[in-house]
Amino acid sequence: MSLVETDWLEKNLYNVKIIDCSWHMPQTKRNGLKEYKSKHIPNAIFFDLDDNSKKDIDLPHMLVDLNEWEKIVSKMGIKKNDKIIVYDNSDVISSCRCWFNFIYYGHDPDLIHVLNGGFAKWIKENRKITNEELILDTSNYRSFEKKELVKDKNFIDQNIKSQKFKVIDARSKDRFEGKVPEPRKGLRSGNISNSSCIPFNDCLNKDKTFKKKEELKDIFNSSIKDINENNIVFSCGSGVTACVLALAYSLINDKYLPCIYDGSWAEYGII
User: Looking at the domain assignment, is residue 175 inside a domain?
Assistant: First the structure.
């Protein structure tokens, strides 16, 4: 199970590592780090999704090199056997991208979880918050890459013909069908040939908690006939909400490890 509830986290605040991975779409004019400094869950560390992504490429949120990841996580004081809870205060449930990153770099999937409902639910329930930042002890984190969990453009192009994997897009139906322009400049509208669309918000309740398993099964059955299928690749605009779908799918298929097209439409849709 990749989710934990607010009740459980409140009882285990100091028995786990807590990460705030709030990231916002540029047009919202919100800043995750500023919001974290203003208030966050006690014992939480901030993970900057933009700063902790590959910088020598003109694509957002691409995975960093292995050595760079080890440095990032070591500075956070996290160790290989730590249980990690990630949350966010974002409309795009950005904590799921951090969840995916840790799994990709070899952290035990049973030790990395997302807080169901995130910071908004935590605040609504009047749970304790703080503006105190942690003084971190560094660690010597060592990891490895599960390269099979990321697909590139070449794979996606070949898969259009082979159809060995099912590609599912997390963007809105209007964006997927090319009815509205992309929010990022320089991208055409439309979708990857032979892909299907499940908007990530379809998997969420109004309070941004994930829907129950039976509801999720019905949602994914629109694109996947067999929910035990593991050859699934999720895509989106920039590799964030694809991870929301990946987590949602893992809730109904416990043998599935998240697999995404890292470049997503930010790469595939370049004009």
Answer: yes
Indicate which residues carry an active-site annotation: 236
139 is written with which tokens? 């660690």
Band (pLDDT 50/70/90 cuts) for residue 58 is: confident
Residues 153 and 260 in one domain: yes
* Alpha-carbon torsion (31, 108, 205, 224), positive or negative: positive
Are 112 and 153 members of one domain?
A: no
How far, in Å, CA of 209 to CA of 93, rounded?
Answer: 10
Give the separation between CA 135 and CA 255, rounded to whole angstroms: 37
Q: Which helix (H) or strand (E) holds 44?
A: strand 44-46
Averaged pLDDT of the chain: 96
- In the chain, the number of structural domains is 2
pTM (2 decimals)?
0.96
CB 119 within 8 A of CB 22: yes
186, 88: one domain:
no
206 domain residue, yes or no: yes
Exposed (0-12), middle (13-18) or buried (19+): which is 171, by Cβ within 10 Å?
buried
pLDDT the model gives residue 1: 61
d(C-alpha 258, C-alpha 109), whole Å: 10
CATH code for the domain of 166: 3.40.250.10
Distance, in Å, from the CA atom of 248 to the CA atom of 1, rounded to the nearest integer, reads 10
Please spell the DSSP secondary structure of 154-216, one letter per residue: HHHHHHHHH--SEEEE-S-HHHHTTSS--SSTTB-SS--TT-EE--GGGGB-TTSPBPPHHHH
State the angle between helix axes of 241-252 and 95-104 in degrees (0 to 180), rounded to the nearest 10.
Answer: 70
One-letter identity of residue 86: V
Q: Which domain holds residue 190?
A: 147-268
